């Protein structure tokens, strides 16, 4: 019986407290973005798809060794000057966990994480990217 009376007394107080929160949020500015016409600006530390600057790459294989999901693969050939020349640099974004370890370990900062976050596709083959291709992210960089 005592609990019933306590609930009768506490009920209007909790109702007033709930209504106060409702009215406070009713008069505040909305924070919802009208996606896809409005897009969130990514922060400096955001890690999107892996990108490569092929001119800086020294083919050290550090990114391939540190990748926990083995989503990067490199092939090279040796030149006459005993220098490694990058032939292919494949990125399987299906396996990528966007950890950024490849970016951290790269001695020449050839690898960086892009700001692209809209990567939906219905074709499994488009998830395999050649990072040496200039237009590799055109379809995801400017979606319609």
Summarize the structure.
With 144 residues, the protein is an alpha+beta fold. 28% of the residues lie in helices and 17% in strands. The strands form two sheets. The chain has a three-stranded antiparallel beta sheet, with no helix packed on it. A two-stranded antiparallel ribbon has the order 1-4.
Written account of the structure:
This protein is α+β, with helices and mostly antiparallel strands and 144 residues long. Helix content is 28%, strand content 17%. It has four helices and five strands. It has helices at 2-27, 62-66, 101-105, 138-141; strands at residues 50-52, 72-78, 84-92, 111-113, 128-130. A three-stranded antiparallel beta sheet has the order 2-3-5, with no helix packed on it. Strands 1-4 form a two-stranded antiparallel sheet. Strand 2 and strand 3 form a beta hairpin. It is elongated, with a radius of gyration of 26 Å. The N and C termini lie far apart (64 Å). The mean pLDDT is 89.
Describe the secondary structure blueprint for this structure:
Blueprint: H1 2-27, E1 50-52, H2 62-66, E2 72-78, E3 84-92, H3 101-105, E4 111-113, E5 128-130, H4 138-141
